[in-house]
Amino acid sequence: MKINEYVPDSSIFDFDKISGSNNEQDKNYISDFASVLKNELDEVNNKQIEANNSTEEFIQGDRVDIHNVMLDTEEAKMSLELAVQIRNKFVEAYQELNRTQI
Fold first, then answer.
1. Is there a domain that residue 39 lies in?
2. pTM over 0.70
3. Distance CA 43, CA 39 (A)
4. How many domains does the chain contain in total?
């Protein structure tokens, strides 16, 4: 009797992957993910700063169109809401992993 006939993917028994022999590759994935996350959060921050600057320019009476101020503000608001929703999904996934029994 062959066990592999009943296992859909025999790569689950590849203990080199489980033991962490590709530790350098894992570190690269983690650092790539962290850099992408940091870049996107910096972009959200830049949109907030840009919206604040355009609002201040409008209040001071500079030649800034109210339409552009509203667009900048809404874009910053939507990007912040998206970042919060993504954070909520990460927290939800983390909590789900903690509830998982081994």
1. yes
2. no
3. 6
4. 1
